Amino acid sequence: MDTLSAGWDKMTGFFSWGSSGDEVPVSQDSLPDYLAGSWGKLTDTLTEALSLRDERETLPESAWFGNDKGSNEEKINKLLDEALEILVQGRAGEMRNEAASLRMKLSEMRQEADSLRNRRITAPESSMLPWKETRASVDNRLAELDREIRSNEAMLASLNDRLADALREMGLELDQAQIDVLLSSVTGDDLLRNTVVFANVKSVVEKLEVLAQNDQNDLEISRRYTGMYLVLNDLLIHTQEELVRKIDGEYKLRLGDLIREAESLQTEAQSRSRQNGYTEAQQKSFALNAESNAMTARVARLYVELLDSQRKGIMENLHGLRRNRDLAENTYRTVRSSGDLRNLIHSGLALFDSIHTLSMPQLQPFESEALRREFEEINKRLKR
Predict the structure, then answer these.
(1) Domain ranges of the chain
(2) Could you read off the pLDDT of 44-76 as tens digits, one per residue?
(3) Helices (H) and strands (E) in the chain — how many of each?
(4) Which CATH number fits domain 186-384: 1.20.1250, 1.10.357, 1.10.287, 1.25.40?
(5) Which long-range contacts (CB under 8 A, 24 or more apart) does 377-382 make?
(6) Is the Cβ–Cβ distance between 305 and 363 less than 8 Å?
(7) What is the dihedral of CA 87, 93, 97, 103, to 10 degrees?
């Protein structure tokens, strides 16, 4: 039976599955609890965004005073962001936040350990003052930090496994190498967020379809549900376009600067490694620096390839979403009958099912531990 063609029968309390005549009991409250609890706020936000969308058609392109299309767009985007805060909820969303928190905590502990190792150099062996830091107290804290770091690394590894399972439940079959790239890359958090949003939007759209069946002859209700569906399409497009802007206007530009800096330092180090004015030890150090910068440039180029691959997948998604949005907008303006809404939603759900929000590349940059460490270092620089 095709679940996408299911409709709620208000009189019997059953789902009717297409034209087969089969009836299957199902709870009317089929939304996840976190969406059901925020349903009123979500639909109010979508309806307000829809009203602003209608208003935009009569506004001037620009105005010295009052609203214009630009200010209207800002208000709509603010409402879409509010709706997104609701739609990022769920098991995968919670694990995404937990993983981000753990990674930040690990980074802070490693920085503390580095600071302690530097302070240990000047710390006295002992002191009569109980609050005075000594080498022994530093060593004790370093040992404690080491245990905490290993414990948190184990927690993060377990969390990553559970997150992979949650993504598979959404139909995203990713191998461990892809999970590693996803969770390590600067775009990973955005991609995970978009995946959770897609899954929740699909649940909301399915619920709108059920609700629309209750009042098939009321064109105003049909118009409202069609409009909310249209705004949800806008929301998905908004999230994808924001990520493309980050990739093009931030991450790739900074990677380009990083590559140019590494190549310049590599050239300088190679030149000085061959100059007789330096000692043999200094020449070797310059040669090692050249190799290190060559590695940085290589990994940064791999990172660019990763972002290009992700961007390509996002643009393919956007193409389908924009076409679907065009159909939704045309249907919203027409509002011919409730049947139009049902057909519209069915085609949209089919599109959501076909879109792979995590378009992961075949590239696997972690072929060695050195590459992994360099990738993580570049990732830290991109996030600053």
Answers:
(1) 186-384
(2) 999 999 999 888 888 888 878 778 888 888 899
(3) 12, 3
(4) 1.10.287
(5) 377/296, 378/255, 378/258, 378/296, 378/299, 378/300, 378/303, 379/184, 379/185, 379/186, 380/107, 381/254, 381/258, 382/186, 382/251, 382/254, 382/255
(6) yes
(7) -140
